[in-house]
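Please, is this right?
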Amino acid sequence: MEGGKGLRAAPFPPLHTFEPLRRTALNRIFAAFYTCAIIVLLYRHAQALLNYSTTSLLYFSINFSLLISDLVLAFMWAAAQAYRVRPIRRKEFPENLKRVIKEEDYPGLDVFICTADPFKEPPMNVVNTALSLMAYDYPPEKISVYVSDDGGSALTLFAFTEAAKFASYWLPFCREQNIMERSPEVYFASNNLSWSPEFEKIKMMYENMKAKVEHVVDKGEISDEYIIDNPHREAFKKWTKDFTRTDHPAVIQVILDRSEDKDVSGNYLPNLIYVSREKSKTSPHHFKAGALNALGPNYVGSGCFFQRRVFFGGPSEMVPPEFDELNSNNVVDKPIKSEEILEFAHHVAGCNYENQTKWGYLNGFRYGSLVEDYYTGFRLQCEGWKSLFCNPKRAAFLGDNPITIIDLLGQCKRWCIGLLEVAFSSKYNTLIYGSRSMGIFMGLAYSHYAFWPLWCIPVIHYSFLPQLALLNKVSILPKTSEPWFFLYVFLFLGAYGQDCLDFVLDGGSIKRWWNAQRMWMIRGLTCYVFGSVEYLLKSLGISTHGFTLTSKVQDDEQSKRYWQGTFEFGVPSPLFVPLTMAAIINLFSFLYGLKEFLVGSNMDGGLFLPMVLSGLIVLNCLPIYGAIALRNDKGKMPTQVTVIATFLSAALSSFAYLIFNQ
């Protein structure tokens, strides 16, 4: 057309779209009914407390404790509704990226991998993570992979120097064969592989590298024979045996330089840089958050990417760093191995660099909580930054998790302490500050996680109090003939039913949901309790145990039991004592209630609900009974724990008998 009249520019194809889920309306209707039921329940508790003059102090205490428990349950349920008010499903179109932006204009991608102990986090696991990242379907000249080793271990550095050699073969292999699983360990373990000479060659190279690295780690030192042809041998010679102690200097090694190093097909390799920041007993190092701030690149940790600018203040007001070189817009125009760049990198990785600066408070990852990812994300959202959640059918990230129950609970206990540090922060409280900054629903969403440890209050109450009352034929829950009975049934089935429905509709199974709620109960009796107590002691200035790294090491027997779905106990930990006590008391309570029911006793006296509750907890505790009495492997419940828990259960039951029958 003349002059271009009537022509419209073709819109760019979308990179993602979303649509509201059809269950939104049902969620809101159910929330309204459930809220009314909660109000009625609280009215019942208030009525019972107001009748204190006609009841004993014992029943007042029982009703007050049930009120507190139900208030916590009500708050946690209300906070969870923030996720159900307007649920959406997003669909991603990564194939459209090249139609939206030219490949040469792709943004640079800095990937950060944290590790701290080669004996708890095997270097080959970390190496596989790095190799899969370096093999991204992304221009390699745009990728930089940083390995942060807070353990300062020569073993980890050695593993990555070996991985760099293998990468020069692995990356071309992935491109030529169009490999989807780009972690070598995952790829070679797959059953859907076709044999070829190239496949056999690359697999042999990987197995040799793996054997070499694991031999060095098992030995605990690096022999000269392994570093004769290693380009970083001078760095290893300077490394002393006691380098992993609390005090050590910063070490930065450029293992691969994308401006120099090429793979066997002639293409440049991504940057691969090893960083171990300076450590000193006299300077706080802020754990993982400090390690992340030692670089200020984009962060890939909990399955997310950050734009670099978010670490320098809100969208409308930038908080500049101390040096222009650290500015989010700064472009480095010098070689990465230049003396000037490396000298500045060592300075930033030093212990004293952050002193009297804004890092960790207004810039970078935020200090003040052991859950630095959660706390930083919360603060960034409060500053005005927006996030976008993508959940493609093929998982974008796969994480490592502990396979023993003690490691899992230890990790969760650490999270509990960090979450409570955020929840009860005087300035950045999720409920008040968060709701004011982001709106009530986002504030509730963050609060649901921040107050996680408080689950221990209702879990402990409902795992012991009704059961001890049942053993003494005392009614503290409604009779089956009372209208309140149906209220309790609705509240219980409603909460569990909605949770199960959400789980199944999102692709889970009934079995996985049952295991998830079983783990919720276990955490409520263990790490939530101990984490809350440790946070309280820490708040009072009483010293507690320091940071403990979660072990990712797996031996063959543990792995076998893990994949069979068998709980791994094995360690005589105090964490297992309240869990075993709950298993014992609920078993006796259920058997006693069942006996009373079978002999024809009147179960309408308020004892039916406690018996059903005991039965459900017994079902959840089946793996614990097996670990106590039926197993002989190393993962069984330690005898020491069983004996202590039995003694304490007997003492608690005797005390309850005296109280209820006074």
